[in-house]
UniProtKB/TrEMBL annotation:
<dbReference type="Pfam" id="PF07728">
    <property type="entry name" value="AAA_5"/>
</dbReference>
<dbReference type="InterPro" id="IPR011704">
    <property type="entry name" value="ATPase_dyneun-rel_AAA"/>
</dbReference>
<dbReference type="InterPro" id="IPR050764">
    <property type="entry name" value="CbbQ/NirQ/NorQ/GpvN"/>
</dbReference>
<protein>
    <submittedName>
        <fullName>ATPase</fullName>
    </submittedName>
</protein>
<dbReference type="InterPro" id="IPR027417">
    <property type="entry name" value="P-loop_NTPase"/>
</dbReference>
<dbReference type="GO" id="GO:0005524">
    <property type="term" value="F:ATP binding"/>
</dbReference>
<dbReference type="GO" id="GO:0016887">
    <property type="term" value="F:ATP hydrolysis activity"/>
</dbReference>
<feature type="domain" description="ATPase dynein-related AAA">
    <location>
        <begin position="39"/>
        <end position="194"/>
    </location>
</feature>
Length: 303
């Protein structure tokens, strides 16, 4: 198992080892989160690489990653634990068939850990000393405020109370990464438990480096044109701007098509890789796309 980085420079190197191109601000807050053992709250638009940070951390620190994917209606039985009721009923029937009459003994047996189904929160608190897992709480803004309040309690003491078993405490707090796409505001009380960082769209230079690392087979000229094109799209008033994930997908798609450079027909045929709403696609197809492409070609020819 790799050691937690001892400096911001080591944190940058750790992320780079996982092919994550980060700026110093992100590396700084991540370093502080690891050293202070505080949750890191990452907010930003979809597709900018928030979730990837947790994956890279787990891989480079050689720790298991436990992911809690949030959604509307998420409750304790789905997020924390539940009992295996079917197995419990079978066990009770077997005990009765064997002639056992001690109801308290039967109850202790069926509410033992072998019938406990551990969901992500409980799994994250069950790590061994020295190898606490990376616990990704993904898209927290999709849940309701009731679950958010419960999560606040968990992150306060890193423990969960199960009435039939008692309190389960983490031997060592997990490395907690919380992400949100800002579809709603997260309560201040939870944010105060965390270190905060806004993950923005990368600069053109950083995005080009990301494409080079994630799609190494892409032609250099093509990669440059793709990044410049996407950067210009983000300056437009679109319903949903393309994220880094879409840039990578577009580069991979055009590489599969053996393209060496962008052209109007290719852009038109593959724009659905970048944009996911018809109004945005119609706007680019109406002439805006060709104008942007002409600007990209002109800039590269002058460079």
């Amino acid at each position: 198992m790799a050691e937690v980085p001892q400096s911001i420079e080591e944190t940058l190197a750790l992320l780079e080892a996982g092919d994550y191109v980060a700026d110093r601000a992100l590396a700084t807050v991540l370093f502080l989160s690891l050293r202070m053992k505080k949750p890191l709250f990452l907010e930003g638009e979809a597709g900018v690489g928030k979730t990837e940070i947790a994956k890279v951390l787990a891989a480079t620190l050689d720790r298991p990653m436990i992911r809690l994917q949030c959604y509307e209606g998420l409750d304790v039985s789905s997020a924390v634990y539940e009992w295996n009721y079917a197995a419990q009923m079978i066990e009770i029937r077997l005990d009765e068939a064997s002639g056992k009459v001690d109801k308290k003994a039967i109850e202790r047996n069926v509410f033992s850990e072998k019938f406990l189904i551990r969901r992500p929160v409980l799994q994250a608190l069950s790590g061994t000393q020295g190898k606490a897992p990376v616990f990704l709480i993904d898209e927290l803004d999709r849940t309701d405020e009731a679950f958010e309040a419960f999560l606040l309690e968990v992150l306060s003491d890193y423990q969960v109370t199960i009435p039939e078993l008692g309190t389960i405490r983490a031997a060592e707090p997990p490395v907690v990464i919380i992400t949100a796409n800002r579809t709603r505001e997260i309560h201040d009380a939870l944010k105060r438990r965390c270190l905060y960082h806004w993950v923005d769209y990368p600069s053109a230079e950083r995005e080009l480096e990301i494409v080079r690392r994630k799609v190494p087979a892409a032609n250099e000229r093509l990669s440059d044109e793709i990044v410049r094109y996407v950067q210009k799209l983000r300056d437009m008033d679109l319903f949903k701007l393309p994220g880094v994930a879409e840039t990578i997908d577009w580069a991979a798609a055009l590489t599969e098509m053996d393209k060496l450079a962008l052209d109007p027909e290719t852009v038109s045929d593959t724009i659905g890789v970048l944009l996911k709403y018809q109004d945005d696609i119609a706007r680019i197809s109406s002439g805006e796309g060709r104008r942007i492409l002409d600007e990209v070609k002109s800039e590269l020819n002058m460079a």
